[in-house]
Amino acid sequence: MNVRRLIPGTALAAVTALGLGTLTACSGASAAGNTDKFDVVASFYPMAFLAQQIGGDHVNVTSLTEPGQEPHDLEISAKQTAQLQESDAVLYLKNLQPSVDDAVAQSEVKTKIDASTLTSLEKHGNEVGGHAAEHDDHEDEELSGLDPHIWLDPVRYAQVAEGVGKAFEKADPDHAADYKANTATLVKKLDDLNTEFKTGLADTKTKVFITTHAAFGYLAERYGLTEEAINGLDPESEPSAARVKELEKMAKADGVTTVFYETLVSDKTAKTIASDAGLKTDVLDPIEGITDKSRGNNYFSVQRANLKALQTALGAK
Fold this sequence. Notes:
The protein is built from 9 helices and 9 strands. The protein is α/β, with parallel strands linked by helices. The chain has a 5-stranded mixed sheet with strand order 1-3-2-4-5, with helices on both faces. Strand 2, helix 1 (about 45-55) and strand 3 form a beta-alpha-beta unit.
């Protein structure tokens, strides 16, 4: 669950086209619909990556969220809404991006694929040291709902991939065999990644890590870890003295060494807390978008960078 204040972003002027593999922005982007391929509009990077990996050469994938844009803050433009109408399918994650949910609900796209229905979702508490978070007046409904960050758990992401594959097969039966084969290949890669995480985090000095963004609840649960998220704080604000003391006490008790921050927001909060508590800082990427700051050029390479960061912070043996 995203615990940050949601500040409306500037409406995007156009849909960003994504390239196969790295899924970085390309110039000369084709429109979302009316191509000779199966046109898929994806809400943000994790959905676009699935669409490309499963669809391969048969799909034309566009993303509503530009690389580097914080997806929770997305506001869809009128042009994007019109392009959504012309697509063959939309792949999104309900309750993560309200503007996308509204646009999809109002659209007449024949195939609407909600990733949240393809696996199980849970509520994850964000309290640090058991104290309730201090939410501001702009608290989003997402905070009290189910955690949408399912793609960070390779097992759940594989379940979503299987569901997307079946949806593609049904919507575009001429290429069903290829979609089925591509899905199987992707699921195998995700199974292998799951094994890497399970093995790599099996024996560590501590099981607790601190993040500025409560995105890693599913990943933590999958591998027997505990995520302590810094709640109720704007990314640009400094934490209170009481909160820093609380974190410092918890960090000492649990052998925490590192405060993790992410690539798409300021690292100011993480560095302030780390400095006051005598801890290190490092990146743990929620993989909401790939930019030149990402430690890798696709989902798998960034996840492996996350694994390495966790192993270092937790003292893997």
